Amino acid sequence: MKTLYLAGGCFWGMQRFLDSAKGVVSTEVGYANGRTVAPTYEQVKHENTGHAETVKVVYDEEVLSEKALLHRFLRVIDPFSVNKQGEDEGEQYRTGIYFESEEDRLIAEQEIAIVEKENGKKCAVEVLPLQNFYRAEEYHQKYLVKNPNGYCHIFVNF
After folding, report:
1. Predicted pLDDT at 155
2. Which of 4, 44, 49, 46 lies closest to 140, judged by CA?
């Protein structure tokens, strides 16, 4: 199993989208790469903690390659938008690929380069080492499963 951390706007829709991929074993939403230890949602939303709403993705690389996972991710978000996805705006909604190994960094950079070449412009997706990840409150976990009519910036038929 491998783990990657993906920030693509509001984590509710991103988690639901990633859960639909064959090969994804588990997902967990949380807050990554910020300045505050163990922030709450309210802190992330109102106190400029620097965290990105992020999904921790555990996947079986024999079923779903990292390249294929990133390909899906980069085509469901707007990779050129800065601090905005759908109706959500702010630093916590920035896009990012947070990695734990040099191999993951190289794969992410290759996939970003493909998107940039296809579109003729530079992506706003940050590719950085994972500094920290704090699990979000329980009510955020699998939110769109619990609340099927909840807001989702990803318009995919689940």
Report:
1. 63
2. 44
Lookup: tokens for 133: 């990840």
Q: What is the CATH number of domain 2-146?
A: 3.30.1060.10
Distance CA 122, CA 137 (A): 34
Q: Which amino acid, residue 25?
A: V
Whole-prediction pTM value?
0.96
Of the residues 10, 32, 64, 70, which is catalytic?
10
| Residue 10 annotated as catalytic | yes
Q: What is the pLDDT of residues 85-120, one digit of tens each?
A: 999 999 999 999 999 999 999 999 999 999 999 999
| 109: enclosing H helix or E strand | helix 102-119
